[in-house]
Each structure stands twice: as C-alpha cells, then as structure tokens.
Design a protein that fits this description.
This protein has 150 residues and is mostly helical. The protein contains four helices and four strands. It has a two-stranded antiparallel ribbon.
Amino acid sequence: MLKEFKEFAMRGNVVDMAVGIIIGAAFGGIVTSLVADVIMPPIGLLLGNVDFSNLFVTLRDGAVAGPYSSVAQAKAAGAVTLNYGLFINAVISFLIVAFAVFMLIRAINKLKRPEVKPAAAPVTKECVYCYSTIPIKAVRCPACTSELKA
C-alpha cells in the first residue's frame, strides 16, 4: 500500500499540481500586496484620502460603543461589521489575477497555434488546348506544340 501511494504521489500530474498550488499561493500574496500597497493608495488619494481597507458599516456595537475609526478597532471592541472596503480590495485582486491568467493563457495559445504559411506560387499551368500540365513560363506546349498566350 505504501508503494502504491508513493507511485501515486510521484506521478507527474500530482507533482505539477502541487507546484501550481504553491506558485499560485505565492502569486496571490504578490497580488494582494500589489492591490493593498500600490494600487489602492493612489485611488484612495484621488477619492479624497479614502482607505478602502477601513471602509465598513457597524451592524452592532461591541463592548465599547462606537464610532470606530478602523476595522481593527471595531473588531477589538467586539463589534459586528460589514467590511465592504475589504471586499472592494478582494474584487480588484481577483480582476488582476484573472487578467494575469488571461494573458498567460493567451500567450500559451499563441505559441500552440500552427504557423500559417502563405500559399506557394504555382509552378505549373494547364495547356488550354490539350489540358496537359506544363511549366508556368512555357510559351509553347511540349505535348501538342500549340503556342500559348503569356
């Protein structure tokens, strides 16, 4: 049984999947940082110093009554909050990941596509009198000796 499990675990597709999951998790961390640290601050600045990660609605106050200045402060007080700012960040992260995957698949498909070669110019033609095949540059048919129009 141990031998069978080892064969299963060492199959190429299982190992490839594990590598994909690990790389995907690392890529997710990079995208999260890109959204939270690079993209959202300028957008928040343009919208009047809005910090999207701290946009929330208090549904029920905690042990310490609100208003709360941040999600962390509300959670520390035990308040129930609706964190729509974090949701906006997650949506933007998803869109960036989806776009990156789209670009990757597009590049792979471009590499897979067979190269379309232009059709080669014909090298033979048909005699209009005897219908035999002759070279394209011929001015007289070798089969029927008819003079051909150029």
